[in-house]
Amino acid sequence: MTDSGASLYNRHRPSGFDDLVGQDHVARALTNALSRGAPPRAFLFSGPRGTGKTTTARILARCLTCQNSDGPTATPCMQCDACLKVGRPDWLDVVEVDAASSARRIDEMRDWLESVRYPPVSSRYRVTIMDEAHQIQKDAASALLKTLEEPPPHLVVILCTTHPWEIIGTIRSRLQHYVLRRPSVVDLKTVLSKVSDLENISATPEALDLVARASDGSYRDGLGLLEMLSAFSDGTIEADDVISLHGGVSRESVVNLVDAMARGDAATAFAELEGALDGGADPDQLMRALVAHLRHILLLQQGASPREEWGLTEDDLATVTAQAKSLSDQQVIMGLDLLADAQVRIRHGGADSRLQLELVAAKLGRPALGPATVVSPARAATPASSSPPAAEEPSPPPPDPGPPAAAVETPPPRVATAAPDEPPPPPPESEPDYAEDPGPEATSPAPAAAPGGEISWSAVIVELQDLAPSVAGILQGGRISEVTDGAVTIVLPNETRRTMLERGGNAGRVAQVLQRHAGGPVAVSYEVSSSEEEAPEAAEVAVPLADDELHDRLKSMFNATPET
Ligand SMILES: [Zn+2]
Question: Are 286 and 277 in contact (CB under 8 A)?
Answer without folding.
Answer: yes
